[in-house]
Amino acid sequence: MRISKTLLALGLGAALAATSFAQAEDKVVIGFSQIGAESEWRTANTNDVKKAAEELGIELKFSDAQQKQENQIKAIRTFIAQKVDLIGFVPVVETGWDNILREAKRAKIPVMIMDRDLKVSDDSLYVAKIGTDSYAEGRKMFEWMDNYVTQTDRKARNGGDKLNIVILEGTVGASAAVGRTNGFNEALAASPNKDRYNILAAQTGDFTRAKGQQVMESFLKSYRDDIDILISQNDDMALGAIQAIEAAGLKPAQDIIIIGADAVKGMFQAMIDGKANATIECNPLQGKIFFETALKVLKGEPVQKVVYVDEGVFSADQAAEVFPTRKY
Ligand code: GYE
After folding, report:
1. How far apart, in whole angstroms, are the C-alpha atoms of residue 80 and residue 103?
2. Residue-wise DSSP of 119-148
């Protein structure tokens, strides 16, 4: 949508007549700041963004922030200087975006959010958000756990009267972690079964496999014979934790119930192998709807402010059957 050289070369009258042709010829340019590559989910999300942009004929300026908010702010500032048509980004953390988004607004460049939520003083600083409902995901983690322990009449391994839970949390300050924590805790607090449970420990594993393993090792050092349930705010951390549990001589999914989030292929494989119990889906395939919405925004058409993608819940008993249909 930038003015093409052909357009400039023509006289003004001819240029006006040629406008629609020039627009059809010029690609929409979108700058996109991704968080990084911390998980299998994120890789699927990035691949989907790139594929969708290509399919819709959009010129994508893609930038990887390596988990740092300051890198995202720099990337957004560069996109503003490059006068892209629209800026998209995944906010690594919820807060701290007001200033840079005001800069984009002053430059009259619309901003769209993907995946994670953000908190800004003024919601007009972004036009739309396409993403995941992490609060609902946190609630589903509790509900699946509570149903499962009810159905299997689970007893505490240490003989006590409460089932002991450890929680691997995501990146500190990220909406995907905050939402899942709040959703889980609020569902627990409101449950008639709340007295069944005790949260032994909760710590961030930064959404990565390596840190999930490391933090689980330390949980096991303190509470090896007490832990009944692991709630992992993403599948990658759960997969790391499974290694720690096996190294400690325990059976994942049997001695310790393992519930993850994302529903990536690696977790399906773990469920098929009998090493994990369930995963709450978080759908990373958001590219198509994101860029279709962006094109509407650029045409001045009305769009919905917040759109959540569809998400399911998968347990080990369905894993083998569902696995071949999984797209990420
Ligand atoms: O669950 C995790 C990732 O923001 C919902 O980020 C996303 C989370 C996802 O890296 O694996």
Report:
1. 8
2. --S-GGG-SEEEE--HHHHHHHHHHHHHHH
Strand order in the sheet with 128-131: 59-64, 29-34, 86-89, 111-115, 128-131, 306-308
Q: How far is CA 295 from CA 56, 69, 289, in A?
A: 9, 26, 10
Q: Cα of 41 to ligand 1 centre, how many Å?
A: 6
Alpha helix locations (H) across 191-301? 209-223, 235-247, 265-272, 287-298
Query: Ligand 1 pocket: which residues have CB below 6 Å?
Result: 38-39, 41-42, 115-116, 132, 176, 207, 234, 236, 261-262, 282
Is residue 117 pLDDT above 50, yes or no?
Answer: yes
pLDDT digits (tens, 9 = 90+) for 7-60: 444 444 444 444 444 455 589 999 999 999 999 999 999 999 999 999 999 999
Minimum-distance ligand 1 atom for the alpha carbon of 38: 10
- Please state the pTM of the whole predicted model: 0.91
